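hey so i finally got around to running the thing on that chain from the lab meeting. sorry it took forever, my laptop kept dying and i had to restart like 3 times. anyway pasting the input first so we r on the same page abt which one it is
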Amino acid sequence: MNAFRNIELLVFAFCIPQAGAQDTLKVIEQLAEADPKPFVIVEGSGKASKSRAQGVVVSTKGHVLSVGHIAWINADKAFTDDFRISFRGTGRGLPSDPAHIHKTVFSDREDATYFEHYFPARLQKQGGSRFIAASDLAIFRIGVDEGSFPKVEFFSKTKPALTAGDNLHLCHFTFPHKPGDPFFLMNPVEVVGVAQTSSGIQYLAKGYYRVGSSGGAILKDGRLIGIQSSAYTVNAKDVGEIPLGLISFELVWSDLIADVLEPPADGANDKAEQGGAEQPAIRSESEPEGSDKHQPESEGRSR
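ok and heres what got predicted. didnt touch it at all, straight out
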C-alpha cells in the first residue's frame, strides 16, 4: 500500500512543474502571435551610419526599454539623439499613423508581404544621463500623443532575485537589420552566473541567440525581468563565431523606471528627462539593404 502511495505522490509532484511549463508556453505563444507585438526595433542614426537594438514596450503610452549603448554611434565616436522605433506586422492595432512604412515582399514565400512601421522617438534622460542608474539600460518614448500601445508587464515591482538554473526566455527578431522581416524567437536561456562589466554586475545565461539580439526582453513566466546587454560567442576554427554561448543581461523591475512612467502631473520634469534636446526629425526614405533570398524585393512609402 505504501508503494502505491509513493507512486501517487511522485506523479503529483511531476505534474506541478509540467503544468507551470505549459502555462508559460501558452503565455509566450500569445505574445509571439500578437499583432502588433510589444517587441520593437530601436534605431539610432549617426552622420553616416546607424545602430540597431531590440526593445520592449513597457507602458501603453509608448515607453520602450532597451540597452543604453544603442545611443553610441561608433563611426562618429559620439552619442546620438536621433532615434526611431519600429513595429513589425500589419500595423492594424497601432494607435496612430507611423511616420514611415517599409514594405517587404518575400518571393520565396509566394510573394508574402510584411511591413515595418516607424515612429519618431526620444531617449528620456534621467539626471542628465542617457543610462538608467549607471547601467546599460535606457528608456525611450515613442512620439505619439494619443492612443494605446501593447506592453509587457514587469515580473516584479521591486528588484527580483534569481538563482542558478532559472529558465528564462529571450525575445528577439532574428534579422533586426532587415526591415519587415517577421522572424521572431522566444527561446529559453538558463541562468548560470554573473559578469562584472563596465556597467556593473550583470547576470549570465547560456542558450541560443542571434547577432543583434542586444536589447532583447528577457521574460520569466511571461513577464519582463531583464534586458540583454551583451553576448559572448563561441569561436570555432575555420567557422567563425557561433551564436550559441553566453549572454549577459540587466535585471529590470517596475520601480526602476517608475519616475519616468508616472511623472508629476504638471510635467515639470519633462524637459529634464529630454535633456533639453529637441525631438529629432524622422527620416522618411527607405534604406538600401544587402541582397538576400529572404528579401528579394522591398519598397518604402512615407506618410
